[in-house]
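Narrative summary of target 7.
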Amino acid sequence: MACVCLAAWAAAQSDPPPPPHVIGAREATRLLVNQAKPDYPAVAHDNYIQGQVQMELMVGVDGHVRRAHVLHGHPLLAASALNCVHKWVYRPFVTSSGPTAFSTLVKIVFDLSQRERTQFPATPERDLAQRVKLPEVVERFAPPPGSPSVQLRVLVGDDGRAIDSSLVSGPAALLARAQNNLSRWKFQPARWGNMAIPWYLDVTVPAESGAHSEVSAAPKQH
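Modeled conformation, tokenized:
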């Protein structure tokens, strides 16, 4: 009997946690007790970049944001929004079973409408992109031959870290393992002139736990 109980206990320990409750943006907003405001990135401001950043938040039982993922948004604005929402605090979401984690969608708007519209260039995002030197991989973890991989769109921060990623192609079941490998990659951040800035980069990432370090030549500084 002791063996049966022990096996049942071990099985219970290995069960994945239940998925968080999904609540609407309006209901989540009513739970907010601390909503930090994002900084408007200077490079975005000076280049007439504006728009919305849409994100999915995972909020813990204690009301703190545990994970934030960008669904859509310009990289300069997305990096600022990610930094901001990690400071948000919610009142616990309470169900009949007590406080529980939840997920919700949020939208942060960066608006330059106070400027005279006549000052805006016709294609500010394209104009900026043409002057940006893209991020580059400095160190990656290469898979053994024949290992599965997925393509990710990575938001590389101005410090060279991958601060967010989305699946571009490949099996969704491999995403978590690929993101775990990605967390050990190192990047040379994008540059606008001499300034490091956040930017997107599409990369192929192994979804193999046995991936090994592969160091690339560091890009030259400009």
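Residues 1-12, 215-222 have pLDDT under 50 and may be disordered.
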